[in-house]
Design a protein that fits this description.
Blueprint (H helix, E strand, L loop, with lengths): L4 E4 L13 E5 L9 E9 L5 E9 L2 E8 L9 E6 L11 E4 L5 E8 L7 E8 L21 E9 L2 E8 L15 E2 L10 E8 L5 E11 L6 E5 L2 E7 L9 E7 L2 E2 L3 E2 L9 E2 L5 E5 L2 E8 L6 E7 L10 E2 L5 E9 L5 E8 L5 E7 L9 E6 L9 E5 L2 E8 L6 E8 L3
Antiparallel strand pairs: 1-2, 2-31, 3-4, 4-5, 5-6, 7-8, 8-9, 10-11, 11-13, 12-20, 13-14, 15-16, 16-17, 17-18, 17-19, 21-22, 22-23, 23-24, 25-26, 26-27, 27-28, 29-30, 30-31
Length: 413
Amino acid sequence: MTSICRLIVVLVLITGCAKSPDILTLPSPHSQLSGAALAPNLSSDPFGRPLLSWIQTQADQATLYYATWDGTAWAEPQAVASGSDWFVNWADFPSVRAFENGLWAAHWLVKSADATYAYDVHVALSFDSGDTWTESVVPHNDGTPTEHGFVSLYPVAEAVGVLWLDGRQTVGQTSHDSHDLHEADDVGKPASGMTLRSAVIGRDGIVRERMLVDDLVCDCCQTDAAVSSAGIVAVYRDRSPTEQRDIYASRMLNSNWSQPQPVASDDWTINGCPVNGPSIVADQDRVTVAWFTAAGGRPRVSVGQSMDAGQTFDAPIRLDEGGALGRVATVYDHAGQAWVAWLQESEAGAGQIVIRKASAAEACPIIPIAETTPQRQSGFPQLLRWREGLMLAFTDAQQAESAIQVRYFEISQ
C-alpha cells in the first residue's frame, strides 16, 4: 500500500464553522488486487470501523469485495461473490452492510436476459461477520426480464430488509437509452412505469413480506433508507403522471409502508430520469435528506430536515453555489451536524467533489475534497462518519484503469 499523503486545503472559514481541515488521501484496498476497481460503497460495522465494498473487474469477470479500516490500514480484501454475467454500472452499484450479532448482507446485480437493462437483484447473508456467505436469493418473484436494482438494505429485527426499483410493469418497453438521462417510458401511462418494492429476507433465506411501496417512481434514481426512532424511513425519486419527479419519503409503520409524501415540492417536471437519487441519515427523531433538482432550469443541491422521524420536513436549504451535478451523500458528524457531499462542474468543465456543513444558522463554506471527471464514469461519492471526522470514497475514472480513491478529514467544531 502507498503511504498516507497530506493535502492542505487553504480556506478562510466563517466563525462557528469547522476550522480549515487537512484532507488526507488514504490508501485503497483494491490496490492489493489486479484489475479495475469501481463503484465503492461505504458503511460501518457494529464496532464503528469503516466498511468499504467495491467491484473489481478483470477480463469478463466481476467480483464484489469488501475490506475494513482499523485506523492504520485496510484489512485484506475479502470476496463475497463473482460472476461473468453481472450487470456492472456506474449508477446502480452493489453494497455490503454489517448489522448486529454477526449478521451481514450483500447485494449485487445479475443479467436476466440479453436486453441491456434486464437484470435481477441477488442478496446473500453472512452469519459470521462476513467470513462466509450463503447462496444468494432474489427478493422479487415476478420473473420478468426487466430492470430490478437501485437497492437499499436495512435491518429488520434478526432479518434484512431490501428496497429496490422494480420494472415488472415495463415489460416490452424500451425505457432507457445510452445517455445520462433515461427517456421516459410510455409518458402519461403510469400503469406501465417503474415501481418501488420491498421484501424481508430471514436468517433461513426465505423471502417474506413482499410489499409495494409506490406504484410509479423514477426509473433509475438511487433509493436510500435509514432507521429513525419510529422505524425505517425510505426516500426515492417519485414520478407523477404529469412527469413531476420530486423526492418522496415513506415510513414503515406497523409493518406497512405509509402513504408516500414529498420531502419538498420542487416541481421538477422532466420527461426522463436524471439518474440522481437522494441520500438520508437519521438519529432518533431527527432525519436529514439531501437531493439534487433542476426544477425551473436551475440545478441545485438541497437538504431538508425532519424533527418527527420523517413525518414532516422543514423547508429545504440550498447548499451549492452553482455548477451542481448532484450525486449527493449525507452523514451526521460526531457532534450531530449534517454534512452533504456532491459533484459539481467548473466553468472550464472540470469535475470536483465538494462537501458542506448543512446549517441554516451558519453560512459555512464549501470545502473541495477531490478533482474528478464530471462524466458518469466517476460514479457516486460515498460519505461516512468515522471517529471525529468524515471519510469519503469515489471512483477515479481519470486514468486508463479505474480505481477507488479514499479521503479523510477531521472536523474541528
